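Weekend entry, working from home. Most of the wet-lab plans are on hold until the incubator is repaired, so I used the time to fold the two sequences that have been sitting in the queue since the last round of cloning. Logging both here for the record. First:
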Amino acid sequence: MDHNNTNKTKSSTKAKSKYNKKNYVRTLITLRHKEMNILNNHCQKYGYSKNGFILQAIKDRIEKDTGKSFDEFLKEQQQEQDPEEPKDKKGSKIPEVFKLDQ
């Protein structure tokens, strides 16, 4: 057995796990058997992954509820969570040492 390939596989798996943990959140949904069968059949018929279909359904619902595109809604949410750093007249961020406490 080639130990070099085994180490590469372990390193690759570890790197992917680290990336996924940092960038994704897992959630659990509970469906009745018949609902899952409907979802499976629909996704298979139209070539969707279940994850992709559910994500699109979430985006569609947010757009319907807010009247905004999902990208607009996401941008607003990000601005509320991460207010922009103060900028000078040229659009450059003002260094921390020059910010005034208010």
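Second, folded right after the first finished:
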Amino acid sequence: MLKHKYIDKICIGAATAALVIVVLFSVLGNEAGVKRASAEPGYVERLFDDDTVHRVDLQLKDWEGFLRTATNEEYVQCKVYIDGEEYENIGLRAKGNNSLNLISEYGLDRYSLKLEFDHYADGRTYHGLDKLTLDSSFQDNSYMKNYIAYDMMDSMGVPAPLTSYAWVTVNGEDWGLFLAVEEPEEAFARRVYGRDHGMLYKPDYKRLEDENADVALRYTGDSFDDYDNIFRNARFDVSDRDKARLIRSIKKLSAGEDLENVVNVEEVVSYFAVQSFVVNLDSYLGPTGHNYFLYEENGRLSMLPWDYNLAFATYSLGMPEPINDAELYINYPIDTPYSGDVMLNRPMFHNIMLVDEYFEAYHERYAHFIDAYFESGYFEDKIEEVSDMIAPYVKRDPTAFCTYEEHIKGVETIREFCLLRAESVSRQLAGDIPSNLNGQSRDRSGFVDGSGVWLPDMGEISDLVN
């Protein structure tokens, strides 16, 4: 037995020192990039190792019946094997909005899919993952739009879903190459923000023709009902207290007040740099105003990326005479990424950019992005590596929306578009090309030449016609 008249003081001192060490390690560890244990769940190094093409086999009794009723978006039970590991009683449904209906309309059945591991049994996960999407590359001959966009976001420190390619089979029969995407729900929130994470929403409209002010993050009053497009799309149980806190933040955002406390400005300007770069008009910076996740913690808001199959200036495609002004979109203005009436109704972008300090930060982050992602050679290396990895799978994809030759052309087109876009953005930041719509309407003389790019080569609705 230890005998010392100061034993109590020694023990207390030792405990205090240990606590100090733990706190210092936590603080310094975070600054050094050491992640919390919860930030590295098992699924990260398994399914989302993106250096290889994974295997996902879906097993269900009535696959044909599932396809016939896919547009109902109802879950059915299935068994799934991921790289040989078996998981029973998993929820499976088709995913999509316009893409879902168009695929059905054209008599095809290559739907994007959702797998929900805990749909039929609470707590069931794939090594900690509760939900994932298998993206079908609709209107994406390159198979890379979502992959590259999320990689760009991640490179800028914006929390983005993890992705990897997966060869999907159904009841043992080849179905095709899909992109596995981590769905932003509980597992995502824990991985990114820790166990004590905040609230996560996916604002989306019921009907596009409605005003949808809440999707645009505009304050219209204190009634919870005014924000139904946000609250009914909450990823976690939302209390009245949560709702009131979010509305208070939206009110300040709409008024342009106290922005440093109601917006994670550094992260949001990084998000908008990538968002405007990829010219995703089916987004918050476009007429639809959706396709993003909203994260709120202690009244502070940030935006997270989602759904880029119509990015890289392909939102306008699919019309009888597809718009292909590649030069317009390659040089699309970074400071007014859509018409004035839309931007005035997007307070998360407009009101932040009205503050000189934040506007300068936006340009600084944009310059960093162009330098680190493009001028370093990283982008071209990434495109080549991914293309080489997936090419054999695309070549034998039995449900592909395009031919292998069209895929190769799609890869070259997205590569060329991004490189020319990076050149234009650099010139806009330097003042050699106008960076707003008004300036560009008067002077396009310095535009980067985009005449060699044909946007439909990245994929369009007419490709669905067999």
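Plan for Monday: verify the second prediction. Residues 185 and 235 are 6 Å apart (CA to CA).
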